[in-house]
């Protein structure tokens, strides 16, 4: 029927096949974007195997009956193949949230996974730089993690079925053999690949090295700006007593005035030597700056301008890190 030189013939068998395909296409659920006005929960269903991750997201009353809005699958890199099980399950969550971040940020979502991967990070005392990046990324989402029973979760394994991909029979056989063979028999990952993946993770949180002999207060640079650069209080408006101005302006500030009048109702704020401090999600304390004017300029403007001048033109992120420290 589709070969060159053959006449096109449409028979009763073709009509019957077309009707069957049309009926199947009409009965199967199609992708439907999530509706923010719909009160039903948004579900993100994730799973990981020994060679990759798969996920889907949708909206509905339960994760078993939700209307799908998207699917994704991704294979592990050479370095990710060596990760522990709970880390691979976490990668499945990270990949799904990263792919649909524009659809999920700002909404309450429920993440369904068959492994209590995030509980390991909560009980682990010392997190690696890579794990710290993961926790910081997950903190942007208003989500709750569910761990259903294994029999209920069996349906999601189809996302990770190699037969569902366009693979040759030889490739499928190779994947099955890799799953059965011990870790030692797999192809060895070059050390440079593992080291490169680790350096990418450390770049997010590890401070840059600095030498005390190279850094001076009069000649600050970007290295000391991100670690132990000159304090801003020594450089703001010629080292004037701007902290006294901040203390005096707390009572007149619309927000911090309420905090100062009733500190017990605001546990995230503390009062130290007349200054209000707030604790961030990372556990560090930052100084609260009210609306105040110093020498005809806003004190907030002076702080940001001084920090930007001190470390140079290195972007918003580095300026923010220097101000926080």
Describe this protein's structure.
By secondary structure, the chain is of the alpha+beta class. The chain folds into two domains: about 40-170, 2-Layer Sandwich (Nucleotidyltransferase, domain 5), CATH 3.30.420; about 220-325, no CATH class. The protein is about 35% helix and about 15% strand. Strands 3-2-1-4-5 form a five-stranded mixed sheet, covered by helices on one side. A hairpin with a 5-residue loop joins strand 7 and strand 8 (about 285). Helix 5 crosses helix 7 (about 190-205) and helix 11 (about 300-310) crosses helix 12 (about 315-325). The protein is elongated, with a radius of gyration of 28 Å. Mean pLDDT is about 75; it is low at about 210-230. Pfam families: RT_RNaseH. One of its GO terms (molecular function) is hydrolase activity. Keywords: Endonuclease, Hydrolase, Nuclease, Nucleotidyltransferase, RNA-directed DNA polymerase, Transferase.
Quick summary:
With 325 residues, the chain is an alpha+beta fold. It has helices at residues 12-27, 85-99, 101-104, 117-123, 129-138, 169-180, 191-205, 222-225, 242-249, 256-261, 299-311, 315-324, and strands at 41-48, 52-60, 67-75, 108-112, 142-146, 269-272, 275-279, 285-287, 293-294, 297-298.
Topology overview:
Elements: H1 12-27, E1 41-48, E2 52-60, E3 67-75, H2 85-99, H3 101-104, E4 108-112, H4 117-123, H5 129-138, E5 142-146, H6 169-180, H7 191-205, H8 222-225, H9 242-249, H10 256-261, E6 269-272, E7 275-279, E8 285-287, E9 293-294, E10 297-298, H11 299-311, H12 315-324
Parallel strand pairs: 1-4, 4-5
Antiparallel strand pairs: 1-2, 2-3, 6-7, 7-8, 9-10
Helix pairs in contact: 5-7, 11-12
